[in-house]
């Protein structure tokens, strides 16, 4: 029996699959998800058309797979060097191999008559309207589940922040990341991280210029904080903070021993603007005063 393959369904199915795989890669590697992932997924979907090519040797097929996966990584993320590219490329190959292996196992165990797993593409033999309905339903379920999980897991990690740096006070919302282990090398003080938009509200222009690599009389205040992430490692400029107060309900935490690092990458979003350190939660203060008088409680506590 010869099975016909509809190009539109082939492209749509493999676009969705590559979009999900690249989104998972972005989560694992710590990369920001953007529209570039959709472009990379489209490139991967076009690669699925190679099933119509004449049979090729295993070596030629492997070379074609490697080139296509490298192209998808380059399309999906901003280039950060050969080392990062190699890491993300290998990670994508592993994720893809695991996914195709799982589909192949399911096909053998349950003998799905409408699913075909090729070496470089997946095809579902269903009508286009049914495919669109199933895709929309699956997207809705995943979106709702993601929103519920995010709200449930992030609610306890958000704190109202009152921050003083460079003689300027700032109020906003911070997120306590248990994976943030940054510390100032000499003092061991915890390091919190903000983006350039928040830093511009907290610091004077000369200090911000010094943090970004400029030369002026504020350079002596800048410390370089080593960091290591799945996407790479390097140094992040930071400055000594004056005071930080975290509040969640009636619970109050205060500290004067911390550094504020500035990242050129986007930090936070609509819900929070600054990445906090869990060590800041070690200095709990009992305070019965209102939020406007919380600094008085902190001053009476040795912090």
Structural summary, described in words:
This protein is α+β, with helices and mostly antiparallel strands and 303 residues long. The protein has two domains: 7-126; 158-300, Cathepsin D, subunit A, domain 1 (Beta Barrel). It is built from eight helices and twelve strands. The chain has helices at 7-29, 36-47, 58-76, 82-110, 128-154, 196-202, 205-211, 294-300, and strands at residues 115-117, 122-124, 158-165, 168-176, 191-195, 223-229, 232-240, 243-248, 251-255, 259-263, 274-276, 284-285. Strands 6-7-10-5-11-4-3-8-9-12 form a ten-stranded mixed sheet, with helices on both faces. Strands 1-2 form a two-stranded antiparallel ribbon. A hairpin with a 2-residue loop joins strand 3 (158-165) and strand 4. Helix 1 crosses helix 4 (82-110) and helix 3 (58-76) crosses helix 4 (82-110). The longest helix has 29 residues, at 82-110. It is elongated, with a radius of gyration of 25 Å.
Helix and strand layout, with pairings?
Blueprint: H1 7-29, H2 36-47, H3 58-76, H4 82-110, E1 115-117, E2 122-124, H5 128-154, E3 158-165, E4 168-176, E5 191-195, H6 196-202, H7 205-211, E6 223-229, E7 232-240, E8 243-248, E9 251-255, E10 259-263, E11 274-276, E12 284-285, H8 294-300
Parallel strand pairs: 4-11, 5-10
Antiparallel strand pairs: 1-2, 3-4, 3-8, 5-11, 6-7, 7-10, 8-9, 9-12
Helix pairs in contact: 1-2, 1-4, 2-3, 3-4
Strand arrangement, largest sheet?
A: 6-7-10-5-11-4-3-8-9-12
CATH class annotation of the largest domain:
Mainly Beta
Briefly note the CATH topology name of the largest domain: Cathepsin D, subunit A, domain 1
The geometry reads as: elongated
Helix content: 40-55%
Structural class: alpha+beta
Main β-sheet description: 10 strands, mixed
Beta strand % = 15-25%
- Kindly report how far apart the N and C termini lie: 77 Å
Radius of gyration: 25 Å
Number of separate structural domains: 2
Low-confidence stretches: none
Instruction: Provide mean pLDDT, rounded.
Output: 79
The tally of helices reads 8
Order of secondary-structure elements: HHHHEEHEEEHHEEEEEEEH
Report the CATH architecture of the largest domain: Beta Barrel
Q: What is the assembly state of the chains in this entry?
A: single chain
Overall strand count: 12
């Amino acid at each position: 029996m010869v099975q016909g393959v509809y190009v539109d369904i082939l492209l749509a199915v493999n676009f969705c699959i590559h979009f999900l795989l690249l989104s998972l890669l972005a989560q694992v590697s710590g990369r920001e998800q953007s529209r570039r992932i959709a472009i990379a997924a489209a490139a991967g979907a076009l690669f699925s058309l190679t099933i119509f090519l004449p049979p090729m040797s295993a070596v030629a097929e492997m070379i074609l797979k490697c080139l296509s996966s490298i192209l998808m990584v380059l399309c999906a993320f901003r280039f950060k060097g050969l080392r990062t590219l190699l890491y993300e490329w290998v990670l994508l190959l592993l994720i893809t191999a695991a996914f195709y292996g799982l589909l192949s196992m399911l096909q053998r165990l349950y003998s799905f008559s409408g699913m075909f797993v090729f070496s470089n593409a997946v095809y579902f033999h269903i009508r286009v309207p049914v495919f669109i309905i199933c895709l929309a339903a699956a997207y809705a379920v995943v979106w709702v589940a993601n929103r519920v999980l995010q709200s449930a897991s992030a609610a306890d990690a958000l704190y109202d922040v009152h921050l003083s740096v460079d003689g300027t006070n700032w109020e906003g919302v911070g997120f306590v990341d248990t994976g943030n282990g940054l510390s100032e090398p000499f003092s061991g003080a915890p390091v919190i991280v903000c983006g350039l938009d928040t830093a511009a509200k907290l610091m004077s222009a000369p200090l911000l210029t010094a943090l970004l690599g400029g030369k002026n009389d504020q350079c002596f205040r800048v410390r370089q904080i080593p960091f290591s992430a799945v996407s790479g490692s390097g140094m992040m400029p930071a400055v000594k903070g004056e005071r930080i107060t975290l509040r969640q309900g009636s619970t109050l935490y205060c500290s004067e021993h911390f550094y504020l690092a500035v990242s050129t990458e986007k930090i936070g979003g609509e819900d929070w603007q600054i990445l906090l350190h869990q060590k800041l939660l070690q200095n709990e203060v009992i305070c019965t005063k209102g939020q406007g008088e919380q600094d008085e409680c902190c001053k009476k506590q040795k912090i």
